[in-house]
Every structure is written in structure tokens, then in C-alpha cells.
UniProtKB/TrEMBL annotation:
<dbReference type="GO" id="GO:0009190">
    <property type="term" value="P:cyclic nucleotide biosynthetic process"/>
</dbReference>
<dbReference type="InterPro" id="IPR001054">
    <property type="entry name" value="A/G_cyclase"/>
</dbReference>
<protein>
    <submittedName>
        <fullName>Mononucleotidyl cyclase</fullName>
    </submittedName>
</protein>
<dbReference type="GO" id="GO:0004016">
    <property type="term" value="F:adenylate cyclase activity"/>
</dbReference>
<dbReference type="GO" id="GO:0035556">
    <property type="term" value="P:intracellular signal transduction"/>
</dbReference>
<dbReference type="InterPro" id="IPR029787">
    <property type="entry name" value="Nucleotide_cyclase"/>
</dbReference>
<feature type="domain" description="Guanylate cyclase">
    <location>
        <begin position="58"/>
        <end position="203"/>
    </location>
</feature>
């Protein structure tokens, strides 16, 4: 018996509790080897169900604001939301894939997450951590691109559509393991690290009433984007992350509303042409 969803095929298999206990005991007695790497290991060749690797990375999360209320409170038709989600997720993935340091992309509902891993050659070119710079570049591109999507939908449906999103970015080291059901073909790399959790939490906060900034980052991100020149005015991404917020743990995170200029110019053209 097969259950097909998207590109995945799930083969039916009866669950056996005794077998499950054996699998858990086998995992518990593994002599795991966790190396420290400066690249993301391959699921096919390097990662197995008994090892893992510590990898320095930058985690990126983007999520729609108040998505559960778009139909009930805002009154958007489900077909509009479905088409919006398709456009939104399609273009996020396109933006992320345009950066070489982006090594992993995941979609859960309307949240898209990505893992960027440093490319040493690009870091030399940027004079800053390349994974950090490319995650910030992705945020700068999608900020006005979301406005373009809203504008095109508003024109098509002849009503104002203003759906918002927020981005969280954090840098650190994560333990990467392969997780899944051995032999089933269902497996994914799992990233276990404080920076991944931090990026997810910052994404939840971003672009709401208390934190009116499209992008929120941790201290490590700001510390690693101070040299790369991001615009003709010789400003860096650290200059754009000007708003500081203290945390209960005595740390800080930072907010900014920076945009990719050609994208923003196109958004302005569309806005000048719109009657909604």
C-alpha cells in the first residue's frame, strides 16, 4: 500500500512496539562520532544514523504574520490565500537558491527556514562571513519582493492585500544529524543548535507591533557583517541593524528594515501605478 504526497512515496508498514524498543535501544548504545566541520556533510556519503557533525552556520527563518487570521479576521478568500502562499513560498525559495551559501531549505506551513554555511572563498571576497552576508542579502531581497507580491495580488483582485512577514537570522554552531526511519527512504538532516532556536524565536517577534522591523538578528550576525559594503554610501549591514533590543539573559538582538534597491525601485513603480 502506497500513500503519495508531492514527490514522496510513503509505503505502509505495520508498527511493532517490540521492534520500536529494539531500535531505541540500538540508538542508545551507539558510539556516536561527532566531528567539527566547516562544511555541511552529505546525507548520501557522510551522514549516517550513527554519526553527526558540528557545523558553523547561519540560520534563516521567515514566516507570515498572523497567518491564522487571514481568512477569519481579514476576510481573504481561501483561493487568494492558496495562490498567495504559492507565490510567497516559490519566490522565497528562488531568493534563497540564488545564494551559494544556502545549503538547506525547509517548509513548514507558511514558515520557510534555511541554513547557510560559510564559503571561505566568498568570505575573502566579502571580507565578512559569507553565510551571514548572504542570509542578510536574502532578507534585503524579500522585504520589497513581498510588497511586489502584495501589489500584484491587489491589482488582480481589485482589493487591497497587505500580507506581512518577518525574518529571524542567527549565527552559531549546530549539531547536524540524520534523522528518519532507516530503510524507509524518509530522512532529513536535523540541525540542533542555539542559533537555530534563536533564529526561529526572532522570526516570531519580527515585524509586529513591539518590534516593527522586517529583520531581527542576534549579536553574532551583527558582529560578522561590519566590513562588507552593502550600498554606494559605504554602509554595512551592521549599519542597517541599528535598533538594539535587550533580552532577559543580558544579551541583545537587533532590528533593521533594509531593502535591495532595484527591488524597492520596482515596488515604488508598481505602487505609483496602483489605485488600491
Amino acid at each position: 500500500m502506497e500513500n503519495k504526497m508531492g514527490n514522496s512515496t510513503i509505503n505502509f508498514k505495520s508498527f511493532n512496539l517490540s521492534t520500536a524498543e529494539d531500535v531505541i535501544k540500538e540508538i542508545l548504545t551507539d558510539t556516536n562520532k561527532f566531528d567539527h566541520l566547516d562544511y555541511l556533510p552529505s546525507l548520501d556519503n557522510a551522514l549516517s544514523y550513527t554519526n553527526g557533525a558540528y557545523v558553523k552556520n547561519t540560520a534563516f527563518f521567515i514566516d507570515i504574520r498572523n497567518s491564522s487570521k487571514l481568512i477569519t479576521k481579514e476576510g481573504y478568500d481561501r483561493r487568494i490565500i492558496a495562490r498567495f502562499y504559492r507565490s510567497y513560498i516559490s519566490e522565497i525559495i528562488a531568493v534563497l537558491r540564488s545564494h551559494e551559501c544556502c545549503k538547506e531549505i525547509n517548509i513548514v506551513g507558511d514558515c520557510v527556514s534555511a541554513i547557510f554555511v560559510e564559503n571561505k572563498d566568498k568570505s575573502g571576497e566579502y571580507k565578512d562571513r559569507s553565510d551571514v552576508i548572504e542570509a542578510l542579502e536574502s532578507a534585503s531581497m524579500f522585504n520589497p519582493l513581498l510588497g511586489i507580491i502584495n501589489n500584484l495580488f491587489s491589482k488582480h483582485y481589485k482589493r487591497r492585500i497587505d500580507i506581512k512577514a518577518g525574518v529571524g537570522i542567527a549565527t552559531g554552531e549546530a549539531l547536524v544529524i540524520q534523522a528518519g526511519d532507516k530503510g524507509s527512504g524518509i530522512n532529513k538532516p536535523i540541525f540542533l543548535g542555539d542559533n537555530v532556536n534563536t533564529a526561529a524565536h526572532l522570526c516570531d517577534k519580527a515585524n509586529n507591533e513591539n518590534y516593527p522591523y522586517f529583520t531581527l538578528t542576534d549579536q553574532n550576525v551583527k558582529d560578522n557583517c561590519k566590513r562588507y559594503i552593502a550600498n554606494p554610501d559605504n554602509q554595512t549591514f551592521a549599519d542597517f541593524l541599528a535598533k538594539q533590543f535587550p533580552t532577559d539573559e543580558g544579551k541583545c538582538f537587533y532590528g533593521g528594515n533594509f531593502v535591495r534597491t532595484p527591488f524597492n525601485d520596482r515596488l515604488k513603480e508598481l505602487q505609483n501605478d496602483c489605485n488600491f
